[in-house]
């Protein structure tokens, strides 16, 4: 992993960052790279309410916002942007508005690397719309000044259609930080982590591979 000038991470939901890129984020932070995380929503429409439930539809937004703050703190992110969109509505937002918002972030921060979802290969409509907005914003830039764009993909057909990931980071050195970031999103992850506890303790190879490796595809402009 090379040192970047500035990293911009753009995802639509609290916890999107934790599962797939929190080790990468922590690694960049440890190298002294400024990292900005722009999170479009507070996950207000999430279905998980904790296990046992400790949230309800009315309290969930505030709880998930606090969880997002906690995760950012665990990863060492000092610049967390909450962009104020409503969960499960990103696909219905005006495309020009989203593109211009991404362009303004890029202009302000001048990142050398942007991390987001790969449009068409990230399953959730909010994921797809967010990644597509980032791609449109970067496409508007002159080729010589475009940042690198590393995309997360996890649809069933992603490897079949995109090929193997272009980049696989082994983040085992910061795996504890990754787990802390996942735990921070307690309302969404508590049951999953409970189910994984024995596998983590036994260092199950498949579970450890999931924990220690973060995969990215570069976007082919």
Automatic annotation (TrEMBL):
It holds the Pfam family PIG-L. It comes from the Bacteria. Its cofactor is Zn(2+). GO terms for molecular function: hydrolase activity, acting on carbon-nitrogen (but not peptide) bonds, in linear amides. NCBIfam families: thiol_BshB2 (TIGR04000). This is Deacetylase.
């Amino acid at each position: 992993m090379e040192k970047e000038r500035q990293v911009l991470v753009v995802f639509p939901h609290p916890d999107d960052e934790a599962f797939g890129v929190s080790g990468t984020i922590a690694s960049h932070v440890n190298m002294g790279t400024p990292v900005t995380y722009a999170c479009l929503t507070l996950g207000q429409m999430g279905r998980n309410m904790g296990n046992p439930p400790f949230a309800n539809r009315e309290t969930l937004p505030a709880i998930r916002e606090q969880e997002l703050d906690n995760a950012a703190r665990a990863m060492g992110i000092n610049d967390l942007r909450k962009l104020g969109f409503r969960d499960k509505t990103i696909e219905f937002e005006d495309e020009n508005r989203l593109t211009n918002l991404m362009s303004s972030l890029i202009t302000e921060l001048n990142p050398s690397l942007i991390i987001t979802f790969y449009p068409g290969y990230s399953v959730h409509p909010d994921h797809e719309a967010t990644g597509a907005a980032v791609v449109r914003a970067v496409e508007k830039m002159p080729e010589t000044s475009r940042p690198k764009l590393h995309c997360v993909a996890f649809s069933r057909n992603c490897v079949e259609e995109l090929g193997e990931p272009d980049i696989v980071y082994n983040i085992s050195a910061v795996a504890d930080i990754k787990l802390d970031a996942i735990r921070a999103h307690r309302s969404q992850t508590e049951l999953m982590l409970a189910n994984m506890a024995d596998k983590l303790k036994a260092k199950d190879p498949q579970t450890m591979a999931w924990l220690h490796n973060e995969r990215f595809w570069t976007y082919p402009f």
